[in-house]
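User: structure tokens for Pyridine nucleotide-disulfide oxidoreductase domain-containing protein 2, please.
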Amino acid sequence: QILDQWFESEPLKATLATDAVIGAMASPHTPGSGYVLLHHVMGELEGRRGAWGYVAGGMGALSQAIACAAVAQGAHIFAEKAVCHILLGKDGRAQGIVLQDGTEVRSKMVLSNASPQITFLELISQEQLPKDFVQRIQQVDTRSPVTKINVAVDRLPSFLAAPNARDGQPLPHHQCSIHLNCEGTHLLHQAFTEATHGHPSSRPMIELCIPSALDPELAPGGCHVVSLFTQYTPSVLAGGQPWDEQARNAYADTVFDSIEAYAPGFKASVIGRDILTPPDLERIFGLPGGNIFHGGMSLDQLYFVRPAPSYSGYRSPIPGLYLCGSGAHPGGGVMGAAGRNAAHVALKDFRCL
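Assistant: Done. Predicted tokens:
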């Protein structure tokens, strides 16, 4: 409805509508999806409103930059050290964490950027939490439609709508987000409807990016990395079928067939691919249900109810324990707002100890 008020071109409306359903098990016709669109365009990058960008060196370089800044301020970082549970004192206050190897790390406060589900349902005994709070966390909608496919290719895709130059160098469109199967909002709705019945979309929504077109260090000369953000794939397949290797490859083949229709020769250029379905995203990255936002960005799960009513201010029912990840206000996105806000709240409390 919002897009109809501002635009006439159906392909343009459909392309913009993808930002209204990114990471959401929702259709462009789903009430509240307009907020998800706003969420993705409300920010700015280097003074440009609504702009997005690539991180030089890949997304891991952003993590390394944050890590270096933290270490410079005296932080100690321990990678590959899984947390077993959060330590609580006799007064019920967070006193640190216990690692899986039994190591105890004592602290006056604990900040968790894990999802609310992991933080409160796995790292803390539920007996220590209010029953209504536990019930709220259990009921958070974490459905995810996303399957991420990382691809290595030996040449740039050449699209029928804009063929490659003879020298094979990246063109302007190679340096942007390329939306496929998005000629009309009805296509997005059809793809969503299939997933609600437990079937991966037969004509999935595809957002294709080629970061190596801007950052040559990501791939050897002449080769490229292609990032495919695709929807819709249900977390649980119809009939309880598992997301096994056969199901993964079948869906990836559907995605590649779609790209081939726009860019003949794409499938022949593929050197390797990495397929991450919703269960893979949950297992590898700790994303509940594979949801990249730690929970749906619907209006009933935002602002003063994220992650639960009365606990949207980063504090939790456990004194000294703070939530600072995407499951806290204002939600998902590479912006660090939840972490920054949580740090301010924690510092304020720390000065009062």
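User: Anything notable?

Assistant: The chain has two domains: 2-53+145-285, 63-141+310-351.
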